[in-house]
Structures are given as C-alpha cells and as structure tokens.
Amino acid sequence: MAGTTDKPNEWMAQWLKMQESLMKEWASSLGKMMKSSAPPEEWMKMPFSPGGLYEQWSRSLSDLDKKQEEEGVGRLVYNRIASSSKVYMDLLNFWSKATGTLKSVPVGRTFTMEEISELRNNWMKNYRELMETLWGKRPASDEESLAKTLEGTALSASDLTWSLVEPILKNVAQMPDIVQKISRGDTSAVRFNTAKNAFSAMLYKTGLKAAEKVYQRSSEFIGKEASPETFKAFYRLWWTINEETYHDLLSSDEFTTMAKEMITRGLLFRKGFDELTDHVLKFTNIPGKKDMDEIYKTIYELKREVRNQKRAIRDLEKQAAAKNRKKKPA
Amino acid sequence: MADNVMEVMMKESARIQQKLLKGFENMIHIQDMEEGVTPREVVYREDKVQVFHFKPEGESVCPVPLVIVYALVNRQYMMDIQDNLSLFRKLIGQGLDLYVIDWGYPSKIDKYQTLEDYLDGYLNNVVDFVRERTGNEKVNILGVCQGGAFSTIYAALYPEKVQNLVVMVAPIDLDTQDGLLQVWSKSFDVDLMVDTIGNVPGEFLNLGFLWLKPFQLVIDKYVGLIDRLDDPETVKYFLRMEKWIFDSPDQAGETFRKFVKDLFQQNLLCKGEFKLGGRKVDLKNITMPVLNLFGEQDHLVPPYCSRPLADLVGTKDVTTIAYPVGHIGMYVSSKAQKEMPPTVANWLKERAVSKKKKGPGKAKK
Q1: Is residue A194 within 8 Å of residue A75, measured between CB atoms?
Q2: Domains of chain B, each with CATH number or no CATH
C-alpha cells in the first residue's frame, strides 16, 4: 500500500504475554467468585468483575501504548476506538445493574407510588454513577465548588467544554502556572472561568434530562431476557435518546448564547494574555505578537505585490505576442 | 436472571477485548495513510498552492479540461480516498482531463491572506495556467462544498474563462435558521476571533462539525467499528476516512472573516450584494450552463442552501440533481460513486465546445 508505513512492533510479544497472564488471573478469580457465597449482585463490586477487569485490561493496553514514541494515524484512531469502547463497557456495567433492578419487577403487578419512586431513585442513582464515569462528577450549585468538582476529572463536562475552546487558546493553555500568576486579580480570567463552568453545567444538566428519557423508555425492557442483543438494543436506545436530547440543546438559543459567551470570554482572556506577554517582551530582545504581526503583514504585502507584477508581465507578454502575430504576413 | 446478566457481561467483555486486541494488532503500527491513490503529476505551484493533473482515459476524451476547486476546510483527497472509491479515477475514466487544486496548509504567516487572494489570485492564476497549458480559451470548473461557493463567485467574475460550471454540495443560500452550522456561525464574534488569534484553527472547525451529531460521531461510529476490527481492509478504509476527517487545515484569518461575515452572517452572495476586490459579484453574470449536485440528507450543507442556485444565475441551462445521500456520501457512497461520474462527464461532454486559444500551447509551471 503506497504511502502507508507498517512498522514491526517488538513490544507486541511482550504485551501478548502480559495479556495471557492477565486472562489467567481473571479466569481464576472469576472461578473463585462464582463459587463464593456472595450473592450475584455483589459480584459487580468485586475487583475481578468483568467491568473491573476491562478497566485493568484497557489500562495495561494504554500503558503499553504510551511506550510507543511515534504517534501515527493508527495509534490515534485506535485511541479513539478505545475511548468509545470504554463508554460502551461503562454502559454495559450500568445495564447489568439496571437489569438487576428491573428483574424484581413482576410483569403486570400494580405498584404503589412509593415503590415507583424507589425504583426510579435506584435507577437514577445508578445512572448518575454512569454519568460520573462518563462526564465527571455532578456539578455543585455554587460556582466555586462547581469548578472544584469538575477540576481533574478524566472525561468531564468541563473537559468537553475545554476541548471546544482549547484550539483557540492553546498557547495560553500550555502555560497554566504563568497564567495563574499573571491572571490573579484579572477579571477576564474570572469571567472566562465562570462562562466555562456555566457551559459545563448546561451540558451536564442535559445529560440528566436524557437520563430521565432513557428511564421512561426502560420499561420496554421489563420481562426481556438478558442477552447481548437486549444490551445492544439498550445501547442504541441510550445513544439515540442522548443524541436527540443534545440536538435539542444545540438548536436552542440557550446553547448559542452560552457558547458565544464562553468563546467571547475565552478570546478576551487570550487577548489580555497576549497584551501582557507583549508588554513583558518589550524588556527583552524577543519579538512579541505585535512585532510578528507586522512582519507577517509586510511579507504578505510583498507576496501580493510580486503576484500582481507577475500577472502584469504575463499580460504584457501576451499583448506583445498578439501584436507580433498580427504583424506577421499571412 | 442475575446469572444471565453476569454471563452477558462476561461474553460482551471478552468479545470487545478480543476485537480490540485484533484492532490493536491491525492498526497500532500504521504510521500514515496515502493522500490520494490515483497517479497524478504536480503541474503548478504558487506559494502553498499546488495543482495536480490527472490524465484522462478512454476513447471519448472531453476536449475542455476540468478544474476541481475543493474547500479550504478539508483536503481534496476525499475524492480519491481509495482504489474502489475514487471519484477522480472514475472521472478520468469517463474521459475528463482533470486539474485539481490543493490549497495547502496556511500558517501564521498567511493570516492576512484574503478571499481576493484566493479567488482573484490563486484560482485565477490556476485557470489561466490550465487555459495556457491546454490551449483552451475556457475551462470547465467543478467546485466542491466551500469550493462550490468559490467557483460560483469566480464564474460570476470571470464568465469569459468558464465554459461550464458544476457545483457539488455548495453553500449558496445561507439565510436559514434550520442548519446548526448556519445558526451558530451567525452568532459568534468573528472579528474578535480573527483579531485575537489570526488564523482559525482547523481543530476548532472540526469540533463544530462533530458537535452536530456528538453521540453518533464521537461514540457510536467507533463502537460500530469494534465488530469489524479484525478485517484489515475495513480498518484501512476507516483509517483513511479518519485521517481525512481530522486533516483540517487552519483557515487564513482574513479569508475566514470575510467568508463568515459576508456569506454566513449576511448572506450577501444570495442577495446580490457580495463584493470582492471592490467589484460586485452578480450571479446573473453566470450565463454558462450550470450543473448543481447536492445530497438530500446533507447535515453540513443542507439542500435548501444549495438548491436555490438555479434561480440566482443568469442562464436557463441549469441541471439540478439531488442524491439520496449525506455530505460524505456524496464522495464515497456506492450510489454517488456509480451515478455521479458518468452524469457529470456526459453533461460536460454535451456542452463541451472547445475553442482553442491562439498562441503558445504549453504554459510554464
């Protein structure tokens, strides 16, 4: 395949060996677990449950992957697939718990309001746990603790939010310590953080809205046998409901207003940061943003001038050629 | 029931692990994928722009060359993604003499580059180059996506150089509250963005595209692939597509500013008020035949953005064809792959009146 580089990977053998020993360990622990007196519901909480094992497995794969120095398209895409498979496995974990809850519902029985409420609360509690593994911890009500809650989570709503502004703020993002020092007392940083947190909270709130809709539809699964197909149907229901719910948000004025606010605040923060950097660089021999912009502009104008001159020369050559053709006798 | 659940979890976990392992083996060592598969020759270069020539095949060769103008936001090799899914290959197979513009990757130094530079500068130079090289007075132009809007503007400004205009999924009428991209782009402060960061990162635009269908494009697309990770050909096709999707050049700041403000925010082209280089762009100047192709399920450039072109141009020879596909499906779906190349080729050949230029034939690179 032209243009495709397939490099031999010596570490693959090492990884396969590790994989084999991990599988053996899993099989042995699973055997012990199934023989134990613990009820099946408790198995999910054990360290070698399928969910826990999957976590360990993907961690070991990721550790090994990190040892690779080159970042090719195969690795990049594999990482995207691995992230999505984690979502899928987390949902599988949730489904197993939810199925456990639903199995206690005899088909056709009439429930009291309290029982319905308890069922719903259990379901939502489990779903919130799923959301925490997917999007980070539930945002708190006040801005400060909200920021703290969202800080440092692996795949949080704030990460998603940050991913939207990161491309336009990347130089700033690379220097968090400096940013923190110089932005102390700078209102643009505070305003940006506030807008970012409000945006994250809006995404999280929408996730809860979707949860409610998924819950309302989950009664469709009562009485259905637990099988890979049932789980796949649940997975489809889950992502399509989320897609629809988020689509409603993305089409709303609320989203447009808050996204605009966050991006504007982010840009104003960056503008302030650039101005400050230029100010500091004045005391050095290093050119600042303004200096570089002047250089870029000059080069651009020169290039444009050259292009215009070339075109003018070409036109003159054509005119001359046409004149010569006319002069030549037939 | 709980035993069943446990069993399902075990089976699913084991299945996913097995497939991921296979995928790991199949893809982790692949460093890069090709950018186009059909043999080509670089025939023109100017700054970061280059032009590829694809020689026509077959007996019935169209006498007028076709210049393909792709968008700035992605790369042209989507139309040549792999052997069995290459529109370029199929177009040359239909006897079309193809010249394809690769706009390249603008860097910081290009932040002041304007839409005038792209259209009056690079595109006009490329068209002149192809006219000189082939000895034709006029060329055919096929504009794709944003390149469709560029081609339409160009054809209105330089009708004397364009024999036929073909546009594919071209955003023309942007006065809508339905398309999310159209709605979002109306709201944000493009001046603040360009003044602050200069070039607009391709990553940022790509995120905008992904947010249109976040669960489908960020989760389900990859989950859906897990089952097919053990098929090396599927994996390679997927990698080619992924490489293309995330291969988004940054946008030259000044070009982005004008494109978003004039076209997306104010819909000036459609209103007949768009100006380029001080000249009003009157779409009624488009008196050459027009072929307008778009996807009925396109969520990036919805049909109502492309369809109105027929009412705006100055020719009655307008052919409008809607395919039952989405934006990407226009390039790679089996329907589009099968039907579009012969449709375009036959339409062009029927309207190909080659008027040879006087003077030298071959142009300098």
Answers
A1: no
A2: 41-350 (3.40.50.1820)
Torsion of CA A74, A76, A79, A83, to 10 degrees: -130
Q: Which residues of B touch A17 (CB under 8 A)?
A: none
What is d(CA B160, CA A42) in angstroms, rounded to the nearest whole number?
Answer: 78
**Chain A closest-CA separation from residue B357 CA (Å):** 11
The CA-atom distances, in angstroms, between A58 and each of A28, A145, B21, B235 are 19, 31, 10, 20
* pTM, two decimal places: 0.83
- Which of A135, A141, A124, A125 minimizes the C-alpha distance to A211? A124
Extents of the domains making up chain A: 40-62+77-281
ipTM of this complex = 0.87
Using an 8 Å CB-CB cutoff, list chain A residues near B192.
264, 267-268, 271
User: Between A and B, how many CB-CB pairs are < 8 A?
Assistant: 238
A77–B196: do the CB atoms touch at under 8 Å? no
Structural tokens at position A21? 């020993």
Inter-chain contact A74–B27, Cβ cutoff 8 Å?
yes
Cα radius of gyration (chain A): 30
* Residue type at B257 in one-letter notation: R
Give per-residue pLDDT as tens, A26-66: 656 655 555 555 555 555 555 445 556 666 666 666 666 66
Q: Which two tokens stand for residue A28?
A: 């042995």
A68's CB contacts (< 8 A; 6+ apart) are A9, A11, A75, B28
Q: Do A74 and B31 touch (CB under 8 A)?
A: yes
Token duo for residue A22: 């991990």
Q: Nearest-CA residue of chain A relative to B190?
A: A264
Q: Which of A18, A112, A14, A92 is nearest to A56 (CA)?
A: A18
pLDDT, one tens digit per residue, over B316-334 is 999 999 999 999 999 999 9
The answer for residues whose C-beta is within 8 angstroms of residue B144's C-beta and 6 or more apart is B68, B69, B70, B71, B76, B79, B167, B168, B169, B170
DSSP string across B232-280 = HHHHHHHHHHHHHHT--PPBPHHHHHHIIIIIIIT-HHHHT--EETTEE
Nearest to A242 by CA among B209, B183, B12, B217: B217
Residue B154 is predicted with a pLDDT of: 98
Which DSSP string do the residues of A126-147 spell out, in sequence order?
HHHHHHHHHH-SPPPSSHHHHH
Residue B236 near residue B33, CB atoms below 8 Å: yes
Instruction: Report the gap between the CA of A261 and the closest CA in chain B (Å).
Output: 9
Q: With an 8 Å Cβ cutoff, is A106 touching chain B?
A: no
Interface of A with B in 188-227 (CB under 8 A): 225-227
Any chain B CB within 8 A of the CB of A137? no
Active-site residue, B270 included:
no
Measure the CA–CA gap between B145 and B151, rounded to whole angstroms: 10
Tokens (6 digits) for B248: 């988004």
d(CA A183, CA A179): 6
Cα–Cα nearest to B276, from B119, B159, B169, B111: B119
Are A288 and A282 in contact by the 8 Å Cβ rule? The answer is yes
